[in-house]
From TrEMBL:
Keywords: Amino-acid transport, Signal, Transport. Residues 27-367 form the Leucine-binding protein domain. This is Leucine-, isoleucine-, valine-, threonine-, and alanine-binding protein. It comes from the Bacteria. The keyword Transport applies. PANTHER family: LEUCINE-SPECIFIC-BINDING PROTEIN, PERIPLASMIC BINDING PROTEIN OF ABC TRANSPORTER FOR NATURAL AMINO ACIDS. It holds the Pfam family Peripla_BP_6. The lineage of its organism: Bacteria, Pseudomonadati, Pseudomonadota, Alphaproteobacteria, Rhodobacterales. The gene is braC_4. It comes from Phaeobacter italicus.
Amino acid sequence: MKRTLIAGVVSALALSAGLATSALADIKIAHIYGKTGPFEAYAKQSHDGLMLGLEYATGGTMEINGEKIVVIEKDTQLKPENGKALLEEAYGDDEVDLAIGPVSSGVALAMLPVAEEYEKLLIVEPAVADSITGANWNRYIFRTSRNSSQDAVASAIALAGENVHIATLAQDYAFGRDGIAAFREALAAQGHEIVHEEFAPTDTTDFTAAGERIFNAMKDLEGEKKLFIIWAGGGNPWAKINAMDPGRFGIEFAGVGNILAALKGFKDFEGMEGGTYYYYELPNNPVNDWLVKTHFERFDSPPDFFTAGGMAAGIAAVEAIKKAGSTDTEALIDAMEGMEWETPKGTMRFRAEDHQALQSMYHFKLRVEDGVEWAIPELVRELGIDDLPVPIRNQ
């Protein structure tokens, strides 16, 4: 009887140890993003893309070397203080191996020091501000999303030309300020200067005063006149300023690409040009083919702007863990610096100096087609990694 009891205890201890080992073997990833708030549409796309990326990269198993991937979701509500606290909770209480997110650049900037304090990886997706991999960067930060400079360089290449005059309008926070600073620099490299800059609060709905200042700065200029707008979320400055009839001064709109919901409002701007990050018909590669097909099957709609980015982040996480052979942070950093991997946009590469993902961008021109709800960004040309001189801003 004693022998039976001892055997039972040993078996129970072994089972307990096995369960503990199994639990510890899970690969835990925190997705910290603004599920609620003005960027809710961006957040849903990002999360859907992340889960599709993990699925694609693991061949549908959601496992790496037999270890299950567990994704823990946390909602920042677009508040920087929430992002900071939730990342601390993820690293400390949840003991995640790495984190991905957030949507907002302002939230991302609050989260960066937490990654450094805990010495854990944060893969930034889809926040864009240059300062994330620039002045505020640390070695635990990798970014799969494009940065403001990539938007700016692509747009400058698309828009610059002889006797072209460009004014700008952007949101008065990190995304807009960094974006225009990068665009100004990229235009200077093309031999151009910005004629006039306007910054407006993120909740602006009345663009009358800003529009009048832009018109006054451009109305007497000779040549092509373009208003380049960087804007995220609500407000719709294009429609509001268009209602003021910029065409009477020969002013046309220009800008970066956007999500499908926003492109619905661009049907009045056929012929508008700029540089874009993604539109589902632009890339030509097997990963994008899988994403488009799978997204239509599951959601009855095409993948959107941030779906592709979320997928790129998910694939990057899996490929990094495979390459490192573990989830040890230092091993992951070694594996990811200079790492190339395939995404819906083709090959991406983490630049060793600042961990920014170098990637293709697309020079587009809007086309309107009967039966399509949105303006279609038609490819003028793909701008590959070697076509985009993206500055290193953390040195």
